[in-house]
Specification:
homotetramer; 379 residues; alpha/beta; TIM Barrel; 21 strands; 21% helix; elongated
């Protein structure tokens, strides 16, 4: 029998036999622009609404996954376990807070305001007392959140149970929310669902892009396994991982979504992430005739980058598609199309980054500079 | 937002992105001796005692893992969540029963009688009403179990919190239990802990060997990954997977433990499992001189078999160690030690199966018959 | 030092440390229509043309991968290693034949007639003496193949080095080849390249579809790793794995290509493979109101099946997309759209199998029959 | 058809489908003591003796595996392919040198002097002309190696084909070799075989420890897969990866073996590797009573470290066994044995590193300093 208090400790002993939950993955994404790159998930459930797990498990799970901060956001108005568990909107946080502190994970108190559309579901985070948020009028709940110093984002605006066509719609209620000053962001990714309209609103209305798991059951997180995605993660660029620093970063919209091999956010952040992750070992290419020349690209991050050539370089064949796997070095080859060329030039080879989205349907463009010197091959 | 009712259904949609929990593994272990080989786990916890998960998750988890039957056994006398969840010893079963029925998994109502040693912890299974088991006197609880038609096994007799030297001890209280007629087995494996004394008692006192997970958190079960063990499983040889058939099999001690690449049980069952799993493609070997001859062993099960040669076959080199990975075909090579031998013989090559234990420190012995015909090599 | 003769034997000893090459995978694809389903690869290279490996390695590799038959097809007219290795078009076969026999793998002698288009590259298999195929006139080579009892297929008709637009073209030379009677098939898949025109020709001209690896370096074959494809395999439906049986099957066009999660071939074979691989646990559904009902689909093969619903069943929601992973059991859920329906009907639910191609852009259609009985829910 | 010249280039296109051989792993082992930590393998074979692969494949394979330098060491006196490939002891190097240069891998010309014991097999590396090494008298071969500027190590002194008891023996021939001044090291690990006597000789005679693959077939190298070992690697601590720098480092015995989760070498290098790989997040522990306190250990390398507690810290329970997986963060817990202790102390907690060997049967000892302040718990 393993009494619950001993669970974490016992796992040390059996670590080689099962899944070694006491190990934390190091998510390798560079810090940028003078900020720490925090890995966060601001939307998840426990048995205190319709989740399947006890609150401490969410903390253990997030610590193992390499996250820096999470928010508990159980439903206020949806309590399917209430025949067995009396409603208490501070319980999950209170149960798990000390454990999170011990592990160095920032735990944020939150709640999901669960209404029909409009306004739909809203997550309030950085609140003080969840039990004070039980009110009939949803606007009164928002006012209470503001009073407690909390801030709000709109969850899954395109959720098919509330928008059967899967298209997010902006209502006057959301204008009201925006005017309160505490609506700071929108869920562009909720679990595995991306909303294009929501993405565009973030740009137009200057709101933070957010990607969250909305996880209800245990989350299996397997970085090692190829093609098994991790949970949606909101990268937050903050001074440090304290609650107030995260809140400051969110209010200033310093976020990027990382999910499904994609990074979604403003050009400034995506460019900085790319430049800090990728390096190239050669800037100049000298060849004779159609000789094949090699250069190597190193990926110093856990992000995969997929590039597509968009400039036509006359007479020289550059790779059309480049997939740079995480933490690997890729060898690439170039050569001219003919044996009798004489070229001495500085060129900019431009690639579109297929998995970096600055706007809906708009990708980051990056450029590699090369000095080329080709001598014709004598026969 | 994923309301809980929809959780399982939604997973169909996102199945390619995360861990595809709607898939059930087929555990490939042959049926033997006219019985079905059921894969069972009779010891696990939910949030209704000190577990981390909601009851339906245990069902989903077991179904995915390929199990046929499980028992919920929350602690009667240890209720660390009681500040948040009022004690109710039928709740877990009632919540999950319909879901188990839909999936075709046999869910057994149980409870863990949680006392200091002696008698220690006892699992009652096939009970009718858990709430009736709350009594001061543990013997009265056992009587109530018997009254309800339940049967009992003794959990982790060597648990270090109750036996600091890690050695199981048999008390007069256990003699009393044995005399009730409802003590049918002992946990030889509890989680990853094997108890040698407990194993010996099963043989001496004619009790069923049991291996159970005693899982508290979510159970990560990864069959594909090499060297990641599955949970301890009690194989039950029963007519079918109905509750009464499992009970009949347990009362008649038709069990084998499968854990940590080991199979533990009586010679009769282990022999039948080996013979139904392993086949060999050649019965006769003809060679000239020191010519190398090949034969192939096929493993038709998910069990790995590790063999060690124990007979000395004069003049012929057989492999000393054979590791037969699950569901693979292994090529083996033999040859004579000299070029000038003439042999015509029927031999029995005996191997000890290192991972099949009929008693503590006693392994199953198996034998491959070969007809050998060696001609000397002419120069 | 490991002398080469001992290599295979030594691997037994070190098997737990490295990649255990002495194990053979069992490819689980059912036998159909009274034939054995042989797994074959008829196109590969060794150091005796431009390959990177010694011939015996190709045999070991194919045996490990679970193949039943392979052909060596080194280039006749392309000998880049000739400064180091004198040309010899029987050497590879002669070196590896005994080893293949010992392992029970059928090794077929072949050669790649390597000419510019037309006729392009042709593989001759079941030949007797490769060195007799060195002739200036390619038609004379074909005549010699015929004389030796060999048969021919046309390799990668769409190869971009010979068809820069990637579109296969049929020349009068191929008409001539067809008239010889020994052209039995076309490579619809060469390595990872599919040719649509070639696929259509197989149907129009009644030729066997072929998928081959054309492997030059060592082939890493990892069945366990999700999303890592195996080599292109030609499934041959033959009486047994002897050379003459394979030849008979090829001459009678009994082949299906398995590659990239796809099966390509005639409706008759694809239907038989699906029906032998997939089973369903319920034929009748009884529900009350919008109750969710479950049924389970079992995949008894190593092939993944991807289904797409193509019939509109009024008032009942069937899954629109079904992905049935290899060797797993999938749970599916259905329910009606309203609570007040009364239905008693026999229905045929039709799915298109996205990864089974009977013709270019034409998929196999399969059908699940259900008896439905729905009672309205009383309030 | 993939002509060989195009093989590497083509793989870019098919990289997502098969094993992506154009990617190089980054082996994460820190540089120490002002030197680069080069990953080297000085013993391997090609088709030019008894290997299974063409020379360029060895280069591609080593580059992918993340190695910095390799030596080709085909047998001089064992040429089993000579019926097909005329002997040429410079061919392998000449064929692969340009390719190695393009990839930035240091390729060293070598040869295996293949004699019966004594002296057994000797690898000469940094030689200039392999064909000049064909001489009857092995001492004449050694003199020729010295003349060419080459240096020598003794391969697998305990090889069972030359020492049937598996115990290495030192002969007067090896004394002669030592006196030549060009014997710089011994293979302590050859493939997966460790020789204890050889290890002791390295210490006694001040020779470099070496671990090499002696690979003959293709080498499957899977860093990601847990428990699948990589090839034996000799870590060389050198100024850079040029031939002369590697030679200087070898002559000065700056090597450590990395294999089978073990590091073998002098205390100085092992200590530096441990200290550069491992960091701990807390130096002081403050607790009240039996409160559990956590600290975290970060492993910044690809090496797994297994620690065993060897100091008895009175009244405080430290973990007895610590397994620190590569590139992970491990959470550990400590607490006192009683509630009423008052401790204020600086302690050194010593662990033996089970997988770091400074001598046969002697492990590196490391120490973590802690400031402890425990207050008794008031009731």
């Amino acid at each position: 029998m393993k009494l619950k208090k001993l669970l974490f400790f016992n796992l040390l002993i059996i670590s080689t036999l099962i899944a070694q939950p006491q190990f934390r993955n190091k998510i390798n994404i560079p810090n940028i622009l003078g900020y720490k790159t925090l890995k966060c998930d601001f939307h998840m459930h426990t048995v205190f609404s319709d989740g399947d797990v006890w609150p401490t498990y969410r903390v253990e799970e997030a610590w193992r996954d390499g996250l820096d901060a999470i928010a508990f956001t159980d439903h206020l108005e949806y309590q399917p376990h209430k025949d067995y568990i009396p409603s208490n909107f501070n319980a999950a946080y209170n149960i798990a807070k000390n454990f999170a502190d011990e592990l160095g994970l920032t735990l944020i108190k939150g709640a999901e305001i669960t209404r029909k559309m409009p306004p739909g579901h809203l997550n309030a985070i950085f609140i003080k007392d969840g039990n004070e948020l039980i009110k009939d009028d949803w606007k009164a709940v928002v006012e209470e959140v503001k009073k407690q110093g909390g801030i709000i984002f709109w969850n899954h605006p395109s959720w098919i149970s509330q928008q059967p066509d899967g298209i997010a719609k902006w209502y006057k209620e959301h204008d009201w929310l925006l005017q309160t000053g505490i609506l700071f962001g929108l869920e562009v990714y909720n679990a595995n669902v991306y909303s294009k309209e929501t993405h565009q609103w973030c740009i137009d209305k200057k709101l933070a892009v957010l990607g969250n798991s909305d996880v209800h059951g245990p989350l299996y997180f397997e970085w090692a396994a190829e093609n098994v995605a991790h949970r949606p993660i909101t990268l937050v660029f903050a001074k440090d991982s304290r609650e107030e620093s995260i809140k400051e970063a969110l209010l200033n919209r310093r976020t990027v979504i990382w999910y499904n091999h994609q990074l979604i956010g403003s050009e400034k952040f995506l460019k900085a992430l790319f430049d800090s992750s990728i390096s190239i070992n050669k800037k100049s290419i000298n060849a004779i005739g159609r000789e094949t020349k090699n250069f190597q690209i190193t990926n110093n991050s856990d992000v995969e980058f997929d590039l597509k050539l968009i400039t036509d370089i006359p007479n020289i064949q550059f790779p059309k598609e480049i997939k740079i796997l995480p933490n690997k070095i890729l060898n690439l080859q170039i050569r001219t199309t003919k044996d009798d060329l004489k070229i001495k030039d500085k060129i900019e080879v431009k690639y579109l980054v297929k998995n970096m989205l600055t706007e809906p349907d708009k990708n980051l463009i990056i450029s590699f500079p090369f000095e080329i010197e080709i001598e014709p091959k004598l026969r």
